[in-house]
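Lecture 7, part 2: worked example. A protein chain together with copper (II) ion.
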Amino acid sequence: MNMLKKILIVLAAMTMPSLAMAQTANPAPAPVTKEIAAPVVATPAAAVPETAAPAASAEAAAPKSMDGSLPGYTPMKPTEGIGMPKPKEIDFQEQFSENGQYAKWINNSILLPIITVISLFVLGLLLWVIIRFNRRANPVPSKTTHNTFIEIVWTLVPVLILLGIAYPSLDLLAKQFKPAPADAVTIKVTGYQWYWGYSYPDHGGFEVVSNMLKEKGDVAPGERFRTENDGPGQLAVDNRMVVPAGVPLRIQTTAADVIHAFAVPSLWFKLDAVPGRLNEKSLTITKPGVYFGQCSELCGARHGFMPIAVEALPPEKFAAWVKAQGGQMPGEAAAAAASPAPAAAATPAAAATTPSAAPAAAVTK
Ligand SMILES: [Cu+2]
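Predicted complex, written out as structure tokens:
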């Protein structure tokens, strides 16, 4: 009896830790999500000490408003179905960058027709074999093993098809790797758990902190919530990444904690944001508008709640937004630096900023 008790106790002791682990392993994510959800979305600065500085500076520069407007800037109302997914859509979203339009053309005008023709051809061959050459219809099968002509055809035709696909594919790949021109506008995108920061080194270095907007029923009284002007639920954000349209952009991505990915389908843009690294890709948005995207690298509990909203504005409106954020356009910076400062200090600043003045001029033509 005593022995049995001892064995039971030992068994219980052995299973206990595994039970405890099993319990923590499974239900843990739920409470973690709930605990983190509230503070992170409401005030990222308070919840994540590291980011206190950029959040604070962004708030200082941008007085709070219920619709995200600033003096001289009102957020653009997104167009239904543009820059966002549509219900029952199976195609790529409408594209607003040259690479995107090219890629969509490759898909719709080259790949899809080839895939369709090949599938129908193979289906036809299968049906022909099933009907014409089954045992009843063809009791004495042919003993043919080689046919030089057919063998040449079924080698050459696939080679030609692959070459036909390879040419535009490699061309697109090369275009996607093309670095931004020297006068491109730089925007540095930083992924945080779980929101985005956009800093503007060419415009005074301010950072905009961008959080998903909550629904009306989910916010405290007086707190900002999503409206139709902000965009669709789960995609609308409080502060958008505002950029000039028609101007080459140099988008750099990095992350402060874990790997995120900055992805906007309607701009044909996706780039990993990796801690300790700076990735870079060029982008020119062809038309003013609001384009939505999402973090595309599983980055933790609130990965699905860190959407991206890019607002492309005509250059003069972009300049007004920069001013509203407390930044300055590159030309202004050079002028300001040149007048009061001694020559030694002014020269590098002017040299660094002058090229960036060009795109604004280039767009007006
Ligand atoms: Cu993420």
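Strands lie at 185-192, 195-199, 207-210, 241-244, 248-255, 260-264, 269-273, 279-284, 289-295, 307-313. The longest strand covers residues 185-192. Keep this in mind for problem set question 3.
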